[in-house]
Each structure stands twice: as structure tokens, then as C-alpha cells.
Amino acid sequence: MGIIVRILISALAVFAGAYILPGVHVRSFGVAIIVAIILGLLNAFLKPLLVILTIPVTILTLGLFLLVINAVIILLCAKLVDGFRVDGFWYAMLFSIVVSLINAILGGMD
Q1: Which of 3, 39, 58, 83 is the one with CA 20 to 30 A from 13?
Q2: Which sequence spans correspond to the domains of the chain?
Q3: CA distance 104 to 76
Q4: Which region holds residue 81: left if phi is over 0, alpha if psi is between -120 and 50, else beta?
Q5: Looking at the predicted structure, is the pLDDT value of residue 1 above 90?
């Protein structure tokens, strides 16, 4: 699947997640595309470093701490992108789950 298609699917997932959750706000689909790109970059470069640094906690929680890392990355993205706002940690965690599910469903249709 091409990179542009992946970005568009992720942007659609971001836009749908913001529609589903009242604590997540995306101004427009253009902002959702920017959020998808920034989330992709943060997941590619920052997430592996955070996973390595938190291996003991992740093992102790049987991998559930990875949800916390995902929520932190989404909150960081909300700080970086104007027009994307998340009202709190729990909304960020729910948003990461919703976006992952939508990406899995839409990404598996190719």
C-alpha cells in the first residue's frame, strides 16, 4: 500500500476518532492529514526510544504501559499541531485505541 494511501487512511481514522470522542477536536480534514503525518513521524522516531527506555515497566505491566506511551505521543502531537486538541490523558488513550482499530479495519481492506 502506498504511503499516500496510508496517510489518507490514518487521517480518516483521526477524523472519525475525533467525531466519536467528545474530548478530541480536529478543526478540518486538512488538519487530520497533518496529524496523521506527525503521528507517523512520532511513532517512527520517538516511540521506539520510549519503548526501550520503559522496558522494565512494560514487562511489569505485561505490555499495558504501551497504551500510556501511545497516549503521551498523542498528547505531544496535540501540542505540536494547531487545530488538534485533546482534553486529557484518558481521551488521548481512548483516541489511540479508536484510531488503531479504524486503521486496522481500513488498512486490512486492500
Answers
A1: 58
A2: 3-105
A3: 23
A4: beta
A5: no
> What's this model's pTM, rounded to 2 decimal places?
0.92
Tell me the torsion sign for CA atoms 56, 62, 17, 15.
positive
Q: What is the bridge-based pairing of β-strands 84-86 and 24-26?
A: antiparallel
What are the b/e assignments for 51-64, b being 16+ CB within 10 Å?
eeebeeebeeeeee
Cell of 75: 498528547
Residue 87 has pLDDT above 70, yes or no: yes
